[in-house]
Amino acid sequence: MPLGRLELPLAVSVGDPAGIGPEIIGKAWEARHTSGLAPFFAIGDIGSFAPHWSGPVVRIEDPADTLKHFDSALPVIQLHNCLSVVPGRPDLDGAHCAYQALEMAIGFARAGSAAALVTGPVSKSQLYAVGFTHPGQTEFIAERCGVAKNNAVMMLAGPDLRVVPMTTHIPLADVATTLDARLIRQRLRATAKGLQRNFGIENPRLAVAGFNPHAGEAGNMGREELELFEPAIAQIRAEGINVIGPLPADTMFHAEARAQYDAALCAYHDQALIPLKTLYFHDAVNITLGLPVVRTSPDHGTAFGIAGQNKALPYSMIAAIKMAESAALHRLAAADGS
Ligand SMILES: NC(=O)C1=CN([C@@H]2O[C@H](COP(=O)(O)OP(=O)(O)OC[C@H]3O[C@@H](n4cnc5c(N)ncnc54)[C@H](O)[C@@H]3O)[C@@H](O)[C@H]2O)C=CC1
Ligand SMILES: NCC(=O)COP(=O)(O)O
């Protein structure tokens, strides 16, 4: 059934203004008709666009003014006290702006002034340098929404592959001690629910990657599969969720294997993101499941090395905007029972 259109605009935080955020948002606005994008407004420093992108911008004071201007210029809500930043040269002023834009975008989405939140790329190390204490935007947004961090799930979604890293931005050396049966169960439940709410998949099929080579080879190459994964998966199956695994991680991402599941849950960041970004770097979207608001983001980072050179491709940002609209519409359709 067609999902219709949103009544509210989408809020797009610019991210680090020294990165490619302003350029990909500007280019997404240029593609608004050809890509059929829902109206959106940016949150950032209006002066940070010109060094990256030469299109028209218009300052608005209220998200509700987006529609009046969206056809002729990119609507921007101005941040306070943002100093100019040079593309490709991240500094603390830019990090402060990125932080402020994120905070404001969450506020608009939570207050019901925006239909969803799309976040531009930020540099984690730059944010840490200005006092950001969360591993990433995922955990920060969860906290602002009152959601426990283990119930907010990072999912990266491409055309025929969705992956969930069950642990996110932690040192690899800490993964084995962070993963426990409770976390695995929480991730599985939140992923199943998130696929229903945001993608309209009624009976999601989940697959869990093993932690060790060959999923432990019957306990001979590590015991996490026997001691953690299998009991956690059995419990989740008993709750009626369709889940397979633990599967050998090296053989679960080829095309025929991908067709067997709607999302692959992986033990750690790179186990999930390497297959996804290898296949779909410019098409994939980062979506946070388990939040009361819809949040998406491009899958890539700030790309400081190409900022301000008109080299950034906007496709992941365009996909993030489209997915935000579609997820918001799925939630609305479920809420009114249609
Ligand atoms: N959603 C987010 O906010 C994310 C933020 N990051 C942050 O980004 C920063 C840089 O991370 P990197 O590992 O260098 O990853 P990156 O994604 O910024 O760049 C990796 C490579 O891809 C290229 N690239 C990235 N986006 C592109 C685009 N749209 N068009 C053309 N080329 C593109 C870059 O030039 C670079 O060669 C880090 O500080 C990290 O914290 C990383 C991933 C996601
Ligand atoms: N590698 C994915 C990533 O960095 C996204 O992090 P987040 O800021 O969206 O939590």
UniProtKB/TrEMBL annotation:
It comes from Sphingorhabdus wooponensis. It is found in: Cytoplasm. Binds 1 divalent metal cation per subunit. Can use ions such as Zn(2+), Mg(2+) or Co(2+). The active site is located at the dimer interface. Keywords: Cobalt, Cytoplasm, Magnesium, Metal-binding, NAD, NADP, Oxidoreductase, Pyridoxine biosynthesis, Zinc. This is 4-hydroxythreonine-4-phosphate dehydrogenase. Belongs to the PdxA family. Substrate binds at T138, K277, N286, R295. GO terms for biological process: pyridoxal phosphate biosynthetic process; pyridoxine biosynthetic process. Catalyzes the NAD(P)-dependent oxidation of 4-(phosphooxy)-L-threonine (HTP) into 2-amino-3-oxo-4-(phosphooxy)butyric acid which spontaneously decarboxylates to form 3-amino-2-oxopropyl phosphate (AHAP). Its EC number is 1.1.1.262. The gene is pdxA. Its cofactor is Zn(2+); Mg(2+); Co(2+). Pathway: Cofactor biosynthesis; pyridoxine 5'-phosphate biosynthesis; pyridoxine 5'-phosphate from D-erythrose 4-phosphate: step 4/5. Homodimer. A divalent metal cation binds at H169, H214, H269. PANTHER family: 4-HYDROXYTHREONINE-4-PHOSPHATE DEHYDROGENASE, D-THREONATE 4-PHOSPHATE DEHYDROGENASE. It catalyses: 4-(phosphooxy)-L-threonine + NAD(+) = 3-amino-2-oxopropyl phosphate + CO2 + NADH. It comes from the Bacteria. GO terms for cellular component: cytoplasm. GO terms for molecular function: 4-hydroxythreonine-4-phosphate dehydrogenase activity; cobalt ion binding; magnesium ion binding; NAD binding; zinc ion binding.
